[in-house]
Design goal:
Oligomer: heterodimer
Shape of chain A: globular
Number of strands of chain B: 4
Order of helices and strands of chain B: HHHHEEEHHHHEHHH
Structural class of chain B: mainly alpha
Family (chain A): Belongs to the leucine-binding protein family.
Largest sheet of chain B: 2 strands, antiparallel
Distance between the termini of chain A: 77 Å
Shape of chain B: globular
Strand order of the largest sheet of chain A: 9-8-10-11-12-16-17
Number of strands of chain A: 17
Helix content of chain A: 40-55%
Mean pLDDT of chain A: 86
Radius of gyration of chain B: 19 Å
CATH class of the largest domain in chain A: Alpha Beta
Strand content of chain B: under 5%
Low-confidence stretches of chain A: 18-33
Pfam family, one (chain A): Peripla_BP_6
Keywords (chain A): Signal
Largest interface: A-B, 33 and 33 residues
Distance between the termini of chain B: 55 Å
CATH topology of the largest domain in chain A: Rossmann fold
Organism (chain A): Fictibacillus fluitans
Order of helices and strands of chain A: HEHEHEHEEEEHEHEHEHEHHEHHHEEEEE
CATH architecture of the largest domain in chain A: 3-Layer(aba) Sandwich
Low-confidence stretches of chain B: none
Number of helices of chain A: 13
CATH superfamily of the largest domain in chain A: Response regulator
Number of domains of chain A: 2
Structural class of chain A: alpha/beta
Protein name (chain A): ABC transporter substrate-binding protein
Chain lengths: 390, 292
């Protein structure tokens, strides 16, 4: 009697599980005519670079809300978010969860190159497209001359940022002796630095000092004192805002007056809090976009974003998150049945797609060709300096 | 000139290590326990200082004292809850508990407020640059050095001139005999934890003002370095912790100064290994012969 009861319960459980599993597969399988398409977001919502992940999530959400209002061929996109806690291992397991449990049609993320590289294998192995809004390391889409078919990005790549910085340093700032100070634990930092050095050398400048630090360091005074002794007139500092803020503050304290320049890794309000507005004067960054750019498309985005997030001004991460939503929606539209394989094929063929961060065309390595903005910090505010086309 | 600057850098860093190392050394001296949760008390102190400056708008000195008071209570709580029940257990049990408490504080803190970093406001202390022999010294680092030295002098006074200090020295020398002499050993141990934790709290605030960025896992590396500093000076010996801390700070700065900045953390632990091999009882420790 008792046994039979248990058997009955088990049987009904397994039946309902089967039905539910069927539902799950049906709603995400993507064999045409479905109402919702699940898209995963694997972002840095907490941890060391939480501000990147949160900004991307806000932009992505705004983009998807706008798209869902109209619908993509009658379909809606449902976002499944995972927090990778700014750690590579968490990024890998988060991606695995999205692909195998939630069965998403595509994954957006992560914000940093290191956390994106940690997911590449899963995207390739499961044939689910992965789009990083801001992972700028070249290895993400192309490793050892072989293109990763299922991996894409919305931003430009490191060599481009490094080259732009080098050109700006020699042409606009008229410098001749550069120092490079990198985060030796970051693929992003090393990528920018090597591109910068080769372009700077080509422009006739020389790199007089090279130093390195490790993420999470707090005391840079000793190394900076050594840099100061080399008397550079320009310092290239391709790092992330937590350390960059401390480095610039401490550098100004020990009397380094030379201009600093970095990449999009600086772009966070925390940078100004840590370094202080005064120390940040005379520093520049290359970035994907500027909210101060007078272009109409950009200003429309800025006002929509401010409306949704209580007057908050969108940074480049939000802009790229927003662009990623449109980039993906465009591919879904062209894919026909919204299956992961078809979406990946459609993404690879993206051409002249007009986005907030510039017109996007993919080259054969899945890397977008688009423009870069140079911003200058003035009393803690980013000011649009110039725009450089590829 | 560059060398002077590097020495100044090293001494500022070292005085923070020294403040944390004092707590390690005092606790070890009295209960023979490496309190690995000490680095996290330092972190809690830093956050208490941060919130009292930004939310309560208290001036630096008041925040410093508040943070020391909160940490003293916190330290006593840790001792009462986690270590007191293990007073007669094996030392390895207490050591493992200490690691557990450390992880509990770190991740409990992350659970409550998240892992994102905070930045101390830049205008807590006035900032001037002082030029000495061509080295540019920040007035903040001088003040920090001043606070550290003042706290160490107060500590020396407590240990050598007050009744509780006498009790601490007695318990440290021989707990059983001290108990026979009518000293309340439990209260003395609590007092030691309170003083040690208060110093860690002060170090936390000083660290925040000097290095700006604070986060929940900030106590791990300074905690380990301070432990190295305590061993370097001779664990259990108070002047040893001060000298050890300052020495370690200077060693780290010099390693970076010679262009091996990536080896800096490694250098601290190489020092630990060398000391354990060649001078196991530290610079200030006396060589004790085991009697059979």
């Amino acid at each position: 009697m008792n046994k039979r009861k248990i058997a009955g319960v088990l049987l009904s459980l397994s039946l309902s599980a089967g039905v539910m599993a069927g539902c799950g597969a049906a709603s995400t399988g993507g064999s045409g005519g479905k109402e919702t398409i699940k898209v995963g977001a694997n972002l840095e919502l907490s941890g060391g670079v939480a501000s990147y992940g949160q900004s991307i999530a806000e932009g992505l959400q705004l983009g998807l809300d706008e798209l869902n209002k109209k619908g993509i061929d009658g379909k809606k996109i449902k976002l499944v978010k995972v927090d990778n806690k700014s750690e590579a291992a968490e990024a890998t397991s988060g991606s695995l969860k999205l692909v195998s449990q939630d069965k998403v049609a595509a994954v957006v993320g992560a914000a940093t190159s290191t956390n994106t590289l940690a997911q590449v294998q899963i995207a390739q192995g499961n044939k689910v497209p992965l789009i990083t809004p801001t992972g700028t390391n070249p290895d993400i889409t192309n490793k050892g001359g072989k293109v990763n078919d299922y991996v894409f990005r919305t931003c430009f790549i490191d060599p481009f940022q490094g080259t732009v910085a080098a050109n700006f340093a020699t042409d606009k700032l008229k410098t001749k002796k550069a120092a490079v100070f990198i985060d030796s634990a970051s693929d992003y930092s090393k990528g920018l630095a090597s591109a910068f050095k080769s372009a700077y050398k080509k422009n006739g400048g020389s790199t007089v000092a090279e130093e390195a630090y490790v993420a999470k360091d707090t005391d840079f005074r000793a190394t900076l004192t050594r840099l100061k002794a080399a008397k550079p007139d320009f310092i290239f500092l391709p790092g992330y805002y937590e350390e960059v803020g401390l480095i610039i503050k401490q550098a100004r304290e020990i009397g380094i007056e030379a201009p600093f320049m970095g990449g999009d890794g600086w772009d966070s309000p925390k940078l100004v809090e840590i370094a202080g507005p005064k120390a940040l004067n005379h520093t520049y960054i290359t970035n994907h976009y500027s909210s101060g750019d007078p272009d109409k498309k950009i200003q429309d985005f800025v006002s929509a974003f401010k409306k949704k997030y209580k007057g908050k001004s969108p940074d480049a991460f939000s802009a790229l998150g927003y662009d990623t939503a449109y980039y993906l929606a465009d591919a879904i539209k062209r894919s026909g049945d919204a299956s992961p394989e078809k979406i990946a094929k459609a993404l690879a063929k993206t051409k002249d797609l007009s986005l907030v961060s510039g017109k996007l065309t993919l080259d054969k390595n899945h890397d977008p060709i688009k423009s870069a903005s140079i911003l200058e910090y003035k009393d803690g505010k980013q000011e649009f300096n110039t725009k450089i086309n590829p | 000139m560059e060398l002077i600057q590097q020495l100044v850098n090293g001494i500022s860093l070292g005085s923070i290590y020294a403040l944390i190392a004092l707590g390690y050394t005092m606790v070890y001296g009295i209960v023979k326990l490496i309190n690995f949760a000490h680095g996290d008390v330092f972190m809690v102190g830093s956050f208490v200082g941060f919130y009292s400056i930004t939310v309560l708008h208290l001036p630096f000195i008041v925040s410093l004292i508040l943070s020391m008071a909160v940490c003293a209570v916190f330290g006593v709580l840790i001792e009462r809850i986690a270590y007191k029940p293990l007073r007669n257990a094996t030392r390895i049990a207490a050591l493992i508990t200490a690691i557990g408490v450390s992880l509990l504080i770190e991740y409990g803190f992350i659970y409550v407020r998240g892992a994102q970093p905070e930045a101390y406001p830049g205008d807590v202390l006035p900032e001037h640059a002082v030029h000495i022999f061509g080295a540019k010294i920040n007035s903040q680092s001088l003040l920090i050095l001043g606070v550290s030295v003042a706290l160490m002098i107060i500590l020396q006074f407590i240990v050598h001139k007050t009744k509780i200090g006498k009790a601490m020295r007695a318990v440290s020398f021989d707990a059983e005999a001290a108990r026979l002499m009518g000293i309340n050993v439990d209260r003395t141990i609590s007092a030691t934890f309170a003083i040690g934790s208060a110093l860690a709290g002060a170090a936390g605030v000083v660290f925040g003002v000097y290095y700006i960025k604070i986060e929940p896992l900030m106590g791990v590396i300074p905690g380990l370095k301070a432990f190295v500093a305590a061993v370097l000076g001779g664990i259990g010996i108070i002047p040893g912790a001060m000298v050890g801390g300052l020495l370690l700070g200077v060693i780290e700065s010099l390693v970076s100064a010679f262009g091996y900045s990536l080896w800096r953390d490694g250098a601290a632990f190489i020092v630990l290994i060398l000391i354990l091999i060649f001078l196991p009882s530290g610079l200030f420790g006396k060589y004790k012969r085991e009697k059979v």
